[in-house]
């Protein structure tokens, strides 16, 4: 059973994340090790459910998984060779390094979200037309943007933690 079937979801890039989470919680409850006769098997099943959820939750890994189901997921770890993309990626990284406020990070998050939306649309077209090399390239770019989003979240946490520590000093 593939991950989409496991969560009773359509095999597509666009997913209702609320439904995904609800089905995840239902499965976790059903296969929780504390309620199982065979705890080792339940631990394995629970781990598999967690992995499936994590894969489907993020658009980059979901797109890569869709390629895997079509046996077209090779070379996803290769470098990106699009010079225009690499230039804009460098600029985004510089903006992240220079961001000093939550507002700046939120603006950057919106910009990255716009890129993700554009790549998601491109991937959907490439995938449906079986343009595998282009779809693989889109997944690599989505993976980059997911890393940037993760780093934005971490930078936001750092700023908020710093603000809390300053408040504690007074």
DSSP E strands, number: 0
Count of folded domains = 2
Helix content: over 70%
Distance between the termini: 56 Å
Q: How big a fraction of the residues is strand? A: under 5%
CATH class of the largest domain: Mainly Alpha
- Count helical runs: 7
Radius of gyration: 19 Å
Q: Which structural class should the secondary elements be placed in?
A: mainly alpha
Shape: flat
Biggest sheet features: none
Descriptive report:
This protein is mainly α and 170 residues long. It contains seven helices and no strands. It has two domains: 3-57, Orthogonal Bundle (Helix Hairpins); 83-168, Up-down Bundle (Monooxygenase). Helix content is 75%, strand content 0%. The longest helix has 37 residues, at 132-168. The chain is flat. 20% of the residues are buried.
Keywords:
single chain
Task: Give the helix/strand layout.
Layout: H1 3-6, H2 17-30, H3 39-57, H4 59-69, H5 83-98, H6 102-128, H7 132-168
Helix pairs in contact: 2-3, 3-4, 4-7, 5-7, 6-7
Summarize the structure.
By secondary structure, the protein is an all-alpha fold.
């Amino acid at each position: 059973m593939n991950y989409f079937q496991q969560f009773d979801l359509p095999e597509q890039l666009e997913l209702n994340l609320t439904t995904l989470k609800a089905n995840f919680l239902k499965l976790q409850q059903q296969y929780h090790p504390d309620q199982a006769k065979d705890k080792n098997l339940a631990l394995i099943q629970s781990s598999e459910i967690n992995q499936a959820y994590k894969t489907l939750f993020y658009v980059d890994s979901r797109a890569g998984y869709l390629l895997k189901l079509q046996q077209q997921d090779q070379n996803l770890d290769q470098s990106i060779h699009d010079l225009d993309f690499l230039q804009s990626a460098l600029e985004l990284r510089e903006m992240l390094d220079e961001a000093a406020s939550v507002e700046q990070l939120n603006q950057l998050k919106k910009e990255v979200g716009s890129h993700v939306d554009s790549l998601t649309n491109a991937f959907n077209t490439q995938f449906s037309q079986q343009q595998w090399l282009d779809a693989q390239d889109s997944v690599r770019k989505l993976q980059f943007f997911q890393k940037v989003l993760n780093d934005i979240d971490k930078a936001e946490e750092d700023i908020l933690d710093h603000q809390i520590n300053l408040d504690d000093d007074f």
